[in-house]
Amino acid sequence: MPSARKPMRYGHSEGHTEVCFDDTGSCIVTCGSDGDVRIWENLDDDDPKSINVGEKAYSCALKNGRLITAVSNNTVQIHTFPEGAPDGILTRFTMHANHVTFSSGGTKIAAGSSDFMIKVVEVTDSSKQKTFRGHEAPVLSLSFDPKDVYLASASCDGSVRVWKIEDQTCTTSWQLLQKCNDVINAKSICRLGWQPGTGKLLAVPVDKVVKLYRRETWDSQLDLSDASITLPLNVVAWSPCGQYLAAGSVDGSIVVWNVETQECIERMKHEKNYSICGLAWHPKYKQVAYTDTEGNLGLLENVGVVEKPKDKVASAVAKDYNDLFDGDDDDYFNGDMVEPQSSPNPAADEDDDGDLMLTSGRPRRAIIDEDDNSLDIGLIKASSSLLEKEEDGDDQTGGFSALPPSSTQQHFYDGPMPTPKQRPFQSGSTPAHLMHRFMVWNSVGIIRCYNDEQDNAIDVEFHDTSVHHATHLPNSLNHTMADLSAEAILLACEGTEELASKLHCIHFGSWDANKEWTVDMPKDEDIEAICLGQGWAACATSAFLVRVFTVGGVQREIFSLPGPVVSMAGHGEQLMIIYHRGTGFDGDQCLGVQLMELGKKKRQILHGDPLSLTRKSYLVWVGFSAEGTPCYVDSEGIVRMLNRGLGNTWIPVCNTREQCKGKSDHYWVVGIHENPQQLRCIPCKGSRFPPTLPRPAVAILPFQLPYCQVTTEKGQMEEQYWRSVVFQNHVDYLSKNGYEFDESAKNQAVKEQQELLMKLFALSCKLEREFRCVELADLMAPNVVSLAIKYASRSRRINLAQRLSQLAVEKATELATAQGDEEEEEEEEEEDFRKHLSAGYSSSATEWGQLPVRNVQQDQEVEDAEETDACEEAEETPEVHKQRPNPFSKGVTSAEVTTPKSAVLGSSSSQGRVNPFKVSSNKKDPVVPSANVLDTMSRYSKKTSLSGSRAVNKQNPPVIKPLIPKPKSKQASATSFFQPRTLTPNPSEKAVEEREGKAVEEREGKAVEDGEGKAGNESHEVKVTAQENTENRRPRTGFQMWLEENRANILTDNPDLNEAEVIKEGMSRFRMLTSEERMVWTEKAKGGAVNGLAEDKKRKRPTADEGEGRRSQEEKSEDTNASKKSKPLDQSTNGRLSAFAFKQS
Amino acid sequence: MEPAEVEFLAEKELVTIVPNFSLDRIHLIGGDLGPFNPGLPVEVPVWLAINLKQRQKCRLIPPEWMDVGKLEEIRDQERKEDTFTPMPSPYYMELTKLLLNYASDNIPKADEIRTLVKDTWDTRMAKLRLSADSFVRQQEAHAKLDNLTLMEINTTGTFLTQALDHMYKLRTNLQPGESAHSQDF
């Protein structure tokens, strides 16, 4: 028979309580923090006798009709028992006593107080006191040696001491406990106890074990421990016979050992896991009364009814009990068998209930979470890993009842345990067992499912009502899966006995009258996950198959999956499938991901790569960002995104749990946008998913990459830079795949990145980290490098400037190589382009488009000069003050002058509407040259951000608009930094020119009107820059000149090279040259370029004279205008730059 | 001031809506609004919210204080105290009326809210009358009332001032009444 546990009852208000039996065992006496001592006839006594002893009672002890209590007025009092009449004060302390105890004879009491003192007082004569000093912290507990020779005490100072009562000396002391400053902070109240009778052993609860010390020798005889004890023990209590020892822990476990055999004979878990703070054995029966810190009183009956017949000693000692428990021996076995399974882990029971309620086979973790049972999760997590394993094993084997009974100790396989496999799910859905649930919530709309007595229906609602009106569908087939796109609703149900699993599509985007179609799966094949893309639908089935359909219902591809599907997501022509790659262990899932494109080019991008998940987490959301980058979220709230810029790796972009206020709060992700960077999700208080009613509201979270030291300026900027880079990857992807994308947003991002680099550069400069500066410059675009050079030379870092100029030259040559490689392609394109021309455009149109450009060119020269002066002025001003107030913002300022050009270009061309009420528009605001240049900066960013957000709206509903594939995509991406315009998906460059020509013409007019209007000036200039870019795509570089001269050499060396290879070879040879030699060539090229220009009518480069003039002007002042240098792709500029740097040295 | 004018002022208050259409940022004299993304909450003035709601272009998210629990607390507080307690919004009455009239389907427990706000309003009006009464009785020269909203001031302001004028006239006419009489003759 196991111990019978009676349900606990309320004893006192919450707080420390203590319990004892009276001498005969006829009643239980408790005291609590409400200051009452209650006398209970038995546990069911609803009308206990209460004696008020003070404001708070800390401890009580009862013997020989005397009740002593330690109360909050720092006294130890006597009351008569059972009358409860006050009988005087025994002793006083300067702080309240924590524990009082009687000696075995009942003649003396010992009290230990928070004032570090212990007193032993004669009960009959309170003047006979003995004081024990030595503890250095509040005394926790005391125990009299049954022979009245020693007194043991435990204290917050961490020591357990044994005192000789006679002379009040400390016989021995052990440093066993953790030190603390007060009783309330103590991990354990450490109620120790001498073995009754002989007093041979002293039991001390130390952390998770009970240490037994032998009398006189004071050595540790043995430790009593048990696997079910996971937290420190609070109390020990000896049975009156001295054979058993009970211990209670702070998490509510009560364990009873047979001290002789060290066998654990009883394990009990408090029903609510409150800390046990009082334990007392019944003087006759095998009962243990216990109290917890919440003031509840409980009773265990028939504890440790063991007495095996052969156990002579035990039976001898426990003779008294034998008659009571005769014939119980067999039951004991049963009891013990059952006990270890249920008692250490009550959560398992609850889980099993959960299993019954829900569809079976659902993984445990999922059930717990879906039931919102956050308490249980915490509990399970808190329990030891051993228990967790046991629990998992439980799931695997289908319960222990089938196993042969065993002894108390677990006997399982002790290695890593397999994790139950996560069940398939639809992204953005709430659990299927709910009566009202979301079947899907995505960026298109919401599908809700109602499944109650009256109705079984599906509600479809679109965020944008212009897509489709809201619909209400009956759900007779009991659909459990759904997906929604801007052209169709896809529903699916699992098969039943009679009915096959069905895929049901409502293609509301169809232009004919038949909007619906249904497909039955083959027998015994159930649909487990579905998704919609653009023009196609897909489902994954239990037969590990993925079936692709057109949105109209034609069956398309079919392929096998390597494992059971977890979830699918579609976007455009991309399909992402996540499946079980294998079995995970110890709570981890083992998932794989396939990403494929189902468009014209059918190809697989991710070939079943392992999916990175946080430890012990599972997948909760899979999908694409609005721009088409795969993302997923795991149960720990980490959002990861595919980083196409780094070999298709996954990068964590957000931790939603960091944003949560409460521990059990979660964010339920519904969508991800890369531009602007938004994580759309629904905050859920105390659960993982939202209820359907009241209607949840969407919140927006920012992204943050987990970079180190983001509190510092450096870390912050690094994080920003890389985040910007990561979130810009989609642009390259879209352009590569011939989608339309937002040019201005991209330029904005590029600008932001370069600005951040420049800031970082300036910061490193300030910190004298020159090597780091060079590293940063390596990341910069060439035009920004020139700025960096300038910054370096201005801050008198000549060495740095030199290195940077080398870097700039290298970059330029690299660029030239890249161009050289593309030469051939270009030529082909040129032909193409001519064909286009002759086919589509009249030559007059081209001419017309050209004409204004020339004027502009000249104008620009003048304006350039003006601006140079202006800038010189502006930059000289701080120079005069000798100390620049903020070199940091300085760098930004100059960055502003050059980098944003492309951005302005993008925005001005895309900005259809401007705010008519905005006064701060750049156009009407001529900037005084010497004014703070930062002003323009802020204005710029304002303007561009505005245009950025415009673009967003245009993209919404986003992106998927296939275009005529661009012939030059490769080059475009390669040189995208420098030639933003070539990225526009225009088939002919001429068209660009023409349009720009017009734009420039218009702008010119305005610029003239505005006179010195800087804004006009600048955008104007930008236009021209772009113009130059398109026209002088390949100015003659030093390398090219060199190549021409050395081509023969190369060809003789390697006669079988084709053109591309020749260039490559030439490139490598050119690189071998010293920088001086290269410089010579660059210089030459400059001269040559002028000649070339003179010949070529189309090339409207500044003439040699102008160029020279400008250069001399620049050389006159050290503060040259950076903007001019930064002319993208201008080789001569780079040459001049380097020359400049050399001159510096 | 007319109540309609007060209501007009109240319409400038911002509320959150969830639009079901996509629109770029709109530039108005009072400031920029939007951008509107379907399904994404955005803050707009009440007048626009009501307009959009009437055209079924949005769903309204009620202000935080428009919640039965909070309003009950406010009502009880208002009843308990002798003075005026601060209201959750300076235009609580107007907003309640406007939002409940036009968007009651988006506000859970609209009827209860209406009753609660009306209760609060009635309590406050009673207090206002009481204080006006004692003001007149004690013939005070000035009084100070905190936490009154514009609408509440408006209900009593004109009447009270005019009444005081009249009373003043009546009082002053008592003594120099003779001369007035004499003029008649």
Automatic annotation (TrEMBL), chain A:
Q: Quote the SMART domains the UniProt record gives.
A: HMG, WD40
Do you know which InterPro entries this protein is assigned to?
HMG-box_WDHD1, HMG_box_dom, HMG_box_dom_sf, WD40/YVTN_repeat-like_dom_sf, WD40_repeat_CS, WD40_repeat_dom_sf, WD40_rpt, WD40_WDHD1_1st
Q: What is its main location?
A: nucleus
Q: Locate the transmembrane regions by residue number.
A: none
Q: Does the keyword Repeat apply?
A: yes
GO BP terms: namely:
DNA repair; DNA-templated DNA replication; mitotic cell cycle
Annotated DNA-binding ranges come to 1032-1086
Q: Where in the cell is it found?
A: Nucleus, Nucleoplasm
Q: Where is the HMG box domain?
A: 1032-1086
* SUPFAM superfamilies, per database record: HMG-box, WD40 repeat-like
Look up keyword DNA-binding and say if it applies. Answer: yes
Q: Which GO terms describe its cellular component?
A: nuclear replication fork; nucleoplasm
Function statement: Core replisome component that acts as a replication initiation factor. Binds directly to the CMG complex and functions as a hub to recruit additional proteins to the replication fork.
Q: What is this protein called?
A: WD repeat and HMG-box DNA-binding protein 1
What gene does this protein come from?
WDHD1
UniProtKB/TrEMBL annotation, chain B:
Q: By its UniProt entry, which InterPro entries does this protein fall under? A: GINS_A (IPR021151), GINS_bundle-like_dom_sf (IPR036224), GINS_Psf2 (IPR007257), PSF2_N (IPR056784)
What protein family is recorded? Answer: Belongs to the GINS2/PSF2 family.
Query: Which terms does the UniProt entry file under GO BP?
Result: DNA replication; double-strand break repair via break-induced replication
PANTHER family linked to this entry: DNA REPLICATION COMPLEX GINS PROTEIN PSF2 (PTHR12772:SF0)
Q: Report the Pfam families cross-referenced here.
A: PSF2_N, Sld5
Cellular component per GO? CMG complex; GINS complex
Annotated organism of origin: Neopipo cinnamomea
In terms of superkingdom, the source organism counts as Eukaryota
Does the keyword Nucleus feature in the UniProt annotation? yes
Nucleus found in the keyword field: yes
Q: Where is the DNA replication complex GINS protein PSF2 N-terminal domain?
A: 2-61
Query: Where does the record place it?
Result: Nucleus
The gene designation is: Gins2
Keywords attached to this Swiss-Prot or TrEMBL record, sorted alphabetically, are:
DNA replication, Nucleus
Which protein, by its recorded name, is this?
GINS complex subunit 2
GINS subunit domain mapped to chain residues: 65-169
Function of the protein: Required for correct functioning of the GINS complex, a complex that plays an essential role in the initiation of DNA replication, and progression of DNA replication forks. GINS complex is a core component of CDC45-MCM-GINS (CMG) helicase, the molecular machine that unwinds template DNA during replication, and around which the replisome is built.
